[in-house]
Amino acid sequence: MAVVDRWAGLGSALASFLFLWSMVQRHVPVTISHRVATWANKLVSYFNPYVEITISEYGAERFRRSDFFLAAEAYLSDACAPRARKLKAELGRDSSNLQVSVGDNDEVTDAFQGATVWWYVVKKVPRSNVISLYANQDDPRTYRVVFHRRHRDLVVGKYLPHVLKEGRAVTVRNRQRRLFTNNPSGGGRGRGDVWSHVPFEHPSTFDTLAMDPDDKEAVVDDLEAFREAKDYYTKVGKAWKRGYLLYGPPGTGKSTMIAAMANLLDYDVYDLELTAVNNNTDLRKLFIETTGKSIIVVEDIDCSVDLTGKRKDKKQADKKSEREADDKPKLPMEPEKDEGSKITLSGMLNFIDGLWSACGGERIIIFTTNHKDKLEPALIRRGRMDRHIEMSYCRFPAFKVLAKNYLDVEEHELFDQIGQLLEETDMSPADVAENLMSMSKKKKRDANACLESLVKALKQAKEEAAKAKVEAEAKKKVEAAAEAAKSKEEDEAKEGSG
């Protein structure tokens, strides 16, 4: 009973002390109370050999989570979560996998080069009747990193940069890759609105790509060398980017090649639609809003916009002739429309190889076209489009890849005949694949039937090509005869007039 009375007296004394201290604080100047708190912290630090570093969830930008906090969160979920007692499972916003991370108000231990580091996950409890300034967060979290003061230089100089690097790598591995497209007039509406995206789930890989194996291996080697060449690009003084020009007839696999590149490198894809871009300034803003580890694609660049100015001159001439033919004044309700994009060749060249192209790094720029000869030479020169890859018609090595993909067949008695027909006939890989793909529900995919169908299609295509060639030669002869007759008439007319 005496012990209970003693503890009760101690509690009463402590309550009285706290009450008196609160009363004293009201009458003590702020400078004195601040100095007393500083001395108290110094006294505690004298006896406490541990240092604490705080990593807040939100930094200077109150509505944006700290990059370092996100990297630390990813690092702890990968390296320290197995040793945690409280775990939190969630599917991240840009993640394709389930993420298990350290729970709130928990402690985990990490070791680095002989130093022990304690991580504390602190969740701040919001005060009642207070509106939070954080975006969708009423309870921001904080990481406290505690370590012995003799390891201060090691933790600050090496460990925390290690956490940042590894955390970013974990984020890249876990994220859901995305396919972006630019919004109309995207450059002028503010951050976050210039690009829209969906999950990128194209299944194409270089193993399933119908292409000559030697050419395919060369492309893969070039891509992997680029991915590991950050220090080399810095050494030679070039922006860490690379350009590819994919050219060839329709159906030869240009878009499939892009998807295979993205899956190999684990990059996002930005599909840039030039006709939705107003001018060079908007084009530059679009580039700035792309991220590293990305592929920027402009498909059918020869058909997107006119980069030579010829089309614009033609439109101006047409408008001038219309004005001369019709002198009626325009009504106020008929304003002159600004048709088409105002992107110029100079703006496009700066987009690929100008000063702004060095903003960020690890980007690949790809142009596709069906007619390489129609492109401006300055647009596709080496240094801008570093590698030109021809996507040609299907030949026997590419056919063997398709046969393995669609029919699980590596050898067949019809292969020799098909190989000979493919050398004599121009058929795209898309057309070959269509003949190998059976969509009948009543009968299962029959390799013999599919290959026979392909042989029939190749023979028909060969006959049609021969027929078209004969017709083209006949037409050419008729045109030559007509030209000769016309020239003869002109000569006779000149002689008669003489």
Automatic annotation (TrEMBL):
SMART domains: AAA. The lineage of its organism: Eukaryota, Viridiplantae, Streptophyta, Embryophyta, Tracheophyta. PANTHER family: BCS1 AAA-TYPE ATPASE. One of its GO terms (molecular function) is ATP binding. Transmembrane segments: none annotated. This is AAA-ATPase ASD mitochondrial. Residues 312-340, 466-498 are annotated as: Disordered. Keywords: ATP-binding, Magnesium, Nucleotide-binding. Belongs to the AAA ATPase family. BCS1 subfamily. One of its GO terms (biological process) is response to stress.
